[in-house]
UniProtKB/TrEMBL annotation, chain A:
The keyword DNA-binding does not apply. The keyword Transport applies. Belongs to the bacterial solute-binding protein 3 family. Keywords: Signal, Transport. Residues 33-262 form the Solute-binding protein family 3/N-terminal domain. Residues 1-21 form the signal peptide. This is Amino acid ABC transporter substrate-binding protein. The lineage of its organism: Bacteria, Pseudomonadati, Pseudomonadota, Alphaproteobacteria, Rhodobacterales.
Automatic annotation (TrEMBL), chain B:
The gene is bztB. The chain crosses the membrane at residues 23-44, 87-113, 134-152, 209-230, 250-270, 294-316, 367-385, 394-416. This is Amino acid ABC transporter permease. Belongs to the binding-protein-dependent transport system permease family. HisMQ subfamily. The keyword Cytoplasm does not apply. PROSITE patterns: ABC_TM1. Keywords: Amino-acid transport, Cell membrane, Membrane, Transmembrane, Transmembrane helix, Transport. GO terms for cellular component: ATP-binding cassette (ABC) transporter complex.
Length: 338, 425
C-alpha cells in the first residue's frame, strides 16, 4: 500500500516533468541558447568554416530561428548529428529542432512522432559516378558497388530502385558523408548516392570535380524539411513561421539590407504584418513583433540564403529549379501572413 | 532476601533492529534491497509513462514488417523485402562469424606471441614486446578504422585488373584477387551436387541446408569416430605392454579418406574468380570477402592477440622453473618441454582470463559499423532502429542477444576449463 502510494507520487512527478519539457519555447528562452541539430559536415548545408563557425543553408535557418526567439543569430549551439543519431537526439530533447537535410516522410511524421514544419529544400536522390566508368544512366549500374549513408531514406529508395529495375548492386553502408567521400574517391565503391544537392556539394570539394558526373535519373522525391518534436505546437509554429517569413520575404522583396527601412512601414500591409509595424502576429507566437525582421536580418531572405550558400555563384552551383518561388515556376509557396 | 540469578530476558524491541549488532546488518541489507527495487521500479514506470506520453508504447510488431534495406555480406539468402526479424538474424550470423574467426585467430597469434616473448633470442623477444605494447595501448576502434583505411588506400581497384594495360594481377595461379572492395577467393562447387534442403519452405524463417555440406560433415564425423577407436586401442596396448603403436598415419588416413571419397563422389571443384571486360563489376564468380569483414577481423584479432599473449606469458611464468629443469634432466628437447610439460600446466592459469578476452572480442565486434560491416548492431541496432524509431525495443533486444552470446561463450569455456583442471587423486 505504502509502496503504491509512493509510486503514484513518482508517476505524478515524472508526468509533471514531462509536461514542463513540452514548453520548448520557454526552455529556449530560459536557456538563452537554441540547440540546433545539423549534419556532421556537408559543405554548403552545414559545416564549420576555417574559424570553426558553422555556416550553410541549414545553419542559416537555425540562426534565423535563434534571432526570432532570442534576438541574436549567434545564440545557437550546433549539435552535429549523423543519419542514425538525429532522431534520437531530437526525441530525447537534446536538440530543440533538427535542420539537417531530413526527408519528410509519412512514417517519420506519424510513427516516429515528429512534426515537420515545412519544406526548405525540394530534393531528389541522385547518383554520382566517375566519368571513366562510361555510365550514362542509372539503369546501366548493374553489379555496381554503391556507397550509401546508413539510416537514411536513400538507403530504402536505393533498394526499391534496383529491385524495381531488376538489377543487382552491392550496398556499402557508411556513417558520414566524409567517410563516403573517402571510399568513393579510393574506388572502394563505384557509385555514391545521396540527395542530388548533397552530391553536388560533395563533388564541389573534390580535387577534380570534372572527373565525376551526376547521372540524370532522380529516383525519389526528397522534400528536405526542418522538424521538431510532436506535441509542442507552439514551438512548431515558431519554427514553421520563421521559415515562412524567410520565404515570404523573398516573395515581397524584403532583404537583409532593406528590412530595417521597410519595417518603418510600407504601402503593402502584408510586408507590414511580417515586419511587425502592423498587427500583433509576433505576440500571437509568444514573441515580440520584430521577430521576423530579426530572422530576416541574420542571413537575408530565402533567396539570399540560397545564393550565399549553395547557389550558382558558389562552388556547389545548384540552380533554383524546384526551389524557386511559386511566382517563378518553383514550388516555394508560403501561406499568407494575416 | 533474594538474589537475581537468571539473566534478564532479551525482549525484542524495534530499536534493536538498528542498535543491536545481531540484527543491524540484516536491517541495512533489507533497506538497501527495498531502495534498489524502488529505484528500478521508478525507472521502469517512468520510462513506460514517458513512452506512453510520446505515443510510442513498447511494441515488437515492427519485426514482421519488410526491412526494405539490403545487406551486402551475408551467410543466408536475404533481400530487401524480408522482415526486420530476418535482417536482425542475418546480422546476428555476421556477428558470430567475425567473433568465431576473431577468437580463433587471436588465440593462435596470442599463444605464439606470448611464447616468443619469453624467447631467449633478444631480438624476437623485444619485437614481441613492441607488438604487445603497440596493440594493447591504442583503442581498438582506431585499429579497425586504420586497418580499413590501409585496405582501401593500398589495394588496387577492381577495374585496375582489366583493360589493355592492367596494373594489378590476381595471385596464386589466378585464383585470388585482392582489391580495395574485398578479396575474391575461389568458390567451392560440386558438379554432382545433392542440392539444398529447404527448411520452412519460402517462409520468413526459410533456411537452406546444403546437403553437400551435411555429407562432408557426416564423413568427417565417421572419420573422427574411427580415429578415436584406433587411439583407444593404442592406449590399451601402451598400458599393457608399455609400447605405443604408431597411430599418426593411420589416424590421418582414417579421417581424410572418407572425406576425400565424398568429395570425389560429389564432383568437388574450385571455380576461381574470372575477369570480365566490364568496367562495373570487372570480377565475377568466386566468393567475395568484403574488406569490411577483413578489416574488422584482422583488427580485432591483432588487438586481442596482444592481451592473450600477456595472459599466456603470465601462465607460463606461473609454472615453476623446476618443471623445465626436471624435464630437461629427462632429456626432453626444449620445444617438447613447452608443448608437453609447460603449456598443459599453464592452461589452468590461462583459461579463466582467456574467457574474458573472448567476451571482449565478441563485444568489441559491435564497432563493426565503423567500417560498414552489417553485424547485429548494424542491422537491428542501426538501420532497423533508425527506420522504425523503436529505440528501446531494439536496444533491449540487442542487449539480450549479446548477453546470450557472452553467456554461451562463458559456458563452453568453463566446461573446457573444467576438463583441463588438475585432477587430484
Amino acid at each position: 500500500m505504502k509502496k503504491s502510494v509512493y509510486f503514484g507520487v513518482l508517476t505524478v512527478a515524472s508526468l509533471a516533468a514531462g509536461a514542463a519539457a513540452a514548453g520548448t519555447l520557454d526552455d529556449v528562452k530560459a536557456r538563452g541558447k537554441l540547440n540546433c541539430g545539423v549534419t556532421t559536415g556537408l559543405v554548403g548545408f552545414a559545416a564549420p568554416d576555417a574559424n570553426g563557425v558553422w555556416e550553410g543553408f541549414d545553419v542559416a535557418l537555425c540562426r534565423a530561428v535563434a534571432a526570432a526567439v532570442l534576438g541574436d543569430g549567434n545564440s545557437v549551439e550546433f549539435v552535429p548529428t549523423t543519419g542514425k543519431t538525429r532522431f534520437t537526439a531530437l526525441a530525447s530533447g537534446e536538440i530543440d529542432m533538427l535542420a539537417r537535410n531530413t526527408t519528410w516522410t509519412f512514417s517519420r511524421d506519424v510513427d516516429l512522432k515528429f512534426e515537420f514544419v515545412g519544406v526548405n529544400y525540394y530534393d531528389g536522390q541522385g547518383f554520382m559516378v566517375p566519368k571513366e566508368l562510361g555510365v550514362t544512366s542509372a539503369k546501366d549500374l548493374d553489379g555496381a558497388t554503391v556507397c550509401i549513408q546508413t539510416g537514411t531514406t536513400t538507403e530504402l529508395n536505393l533498394a526499391d530502385f534496383f529491385r524495381a529495375n531488376n538489377i543487382s548492386y552491392e550496398p556499402v553502408p557508411i556513417e558520414t558523408n566524409a567517410e563516403a567521400q573517402q571510399q568513393y574517391l579510393a574506388g572502394a565503391c563505384d557509385v555514391y548516392t545521396t540527395d542530388a544537392s548533397g552530391l553536388a556539394a560533395t563533388r564541389a570539394t573534390f580535387e577534380k570535380p570534372g572527373d565525376h558526373i551526376l547521372l540524370p535519373e532522380i529516383i525519389s522525391k526528397e522534400p528536405l524539411a526542418p522538424l521538431v518534436r510532436h506535441g509542442d505546437s507552439e514551438w512548431a509554429d515558431v519554427v514553421r513561421w520563421t521559415l515562412n517569413a524567410l520565404i515570404s520575404a523573398e516573395e515581397y522583396g524584403i532583404t537583409k539590407a532593406n528590412a530595417e527601412e521597410m519595417s518603418k512601414g510600407s504601402d503593402n500591409p502584408e510586408i507590414n504584418r511580417i515586419l511587425g509595424s502592423e498587427g500583433t502576429l509576433g505576440e500571437m507566437l509568444g514573441l515580440d513583433n520584430a521577430w521576423a525582421k530579426r530572422a530576416i536580418m541574420v542571413g537575408g531572405n530565402y533567396g539570399e540564403i540560397f545564393d550565399a550558400n549553395i547557389g550558382e555563384s558558389t562552388p556547389i552551383a545548384l540552380s533554383r529549379g524546384l526551389n524557386a518561388q511559386w511566382t517563378k515556376g518553383g514550388l516555394l509557396y508560403s501561406p499568407p501572413f494575416r | 532476601m533474594t538474589t537475581i540469578t537468571e539473566a534478564p530476558r532479551a525482549q525484542f524491541r524495534l530499536s534493536m533492529l538498528l542498535y543491536d549488532t545481531r540484527y543491524r546488518s540484516g536491517t541495512i541489507q533489507i533497506i538497501a534491497l527495498f531502495g534498489f527495487v524502488l529505484m528500478a521500479g521508478w525507472l521502469i514506470s517512468n520510462t513506460m509513462n514517458n513512452l506512453a506520453a510520446l505515443g510510442k508504447p513498447i511494441d515488437f510488431g515492427f519485426f514482421a514488417e519488410p526491412a526494405s534495406y539490403d545487406i551486402n555480406q551475408r551467410l543466408l539468402d536475404y533481400n530487401s523485402r524480408d522482415t526486420h526479424l530476418r535482417a536482425a538474424f542475418i546480422g546476428l550470423l555476421n556477428t558470430l562469424v567475425v567473433a568465431v574467426l576473431g577468437c580463433i585467430t587471436a588465440t593462435v597469434l596470442g599463444v605464439l606471441i606470448g611464447v616468443l616473448r619469453l624467447s631467449k633470442n633478444w631480438l624476437v623477444a623485444r619485437l614481441m614486446t613492441i607488438y604487445v605494447e603497440l596493440f594493447r595501448n591504442v583503442p581498438v576502434l582506431l585499429w579497425i578504422v586504420f586497418t580499413m583505411a590501409i585496405l582501401i588506400e593500398s589495394l588496387p581497384q577492381p577495374r585496375d585488373f582489366i583493360g589493355d594495360a592492367p596494373t594489378a594481377f590476381m595471385g596464386l595461379f589466378n585464383s585470388i584477387a585482392a582489391t580495395n572492395q574485398g578479396t575474391w577467393l575461389p568458390e567451392v562447387l560440386f558438379s554432382r551436387s545433392l542440392g539444398n534442403l529447404h527448411l520452412f519452405g519460402e517462409a520468413r524463417l526459410r533456411f537452406d541446408v546444403s546437403l553437400d555440406l551435411v555429407a562432408i560433415l557426416v564423413a568427417l564425423g565417421i572419420g573422427i569416430f574411427g580415429a578415436r577407436i584406433v587411439s583407444r586401442r593404442a592406449e590399451r596396448i601402451q598400458s599393457e605392454t608399455g609400447v605405443r603403436p604408431k597411430t599418426g598415419i593411420i589416424n590421418f588416413l582414417i579421417i581424410a579418406l572418407p572425406v576425400l571419397v565424398v568429395l570425389v563422389a560429389l564432383g568437388f571443384y574450385l571455380d576461381g574468380p574470372h575477369l570480365t571486360t566490364r568496367k562495373l563489376k570487372p570480377i565475377e564468380g568466386g566468393t567475395l570477402i568484403r574488406n569490411s569483414l577483413i578489416a574488422l577481423w584482422l583488427a580485432l584479432s591483432l588487438y586481442t592477440a596482444a592481451f592473450i599473449a600477456e595472459i599466456v606469458r603470465a601462465g607460463i611464468m606461473a609454472i615453476s622453473h623446476g618443471q623445465t629443469e626436471a624435464a630437461a634432466a629427462l632429456g626432453i628437447r626444449p620445444g617438447r618441454i613447452m608443448r608437453l610439460v609447460i603449456l598443459p600446466q599453464a592452461l589452468r592459469v590461462i583459461i579463466p582470463p582467456l574467457i574474458s578476452n573472448y567476451l571482449n572480442l565478441t563485444k568489441n565486434s559491435s564497432l563493426a559499423i565503423a567500417v560498414g560491416y552489417m553485424d547485429i548492431t548494424g542491422t537491428l541496432g542501426g538501420i532497423t532502429l533508425n527506420q522504425t524509431g523503436r529505440e528501446l525495443e531494439c536496444i533491449l533486444l540487442l542487449m539480450l542477444v549479446y548477453l546470450s552470446i557472452s553467456l554461451s561463450i562463458s559456458a563452453v569455456m568453463n566446461w573446457y576449463n573444467e576438463s583441463v583442471k588438475l585432477r587430484e587423486r
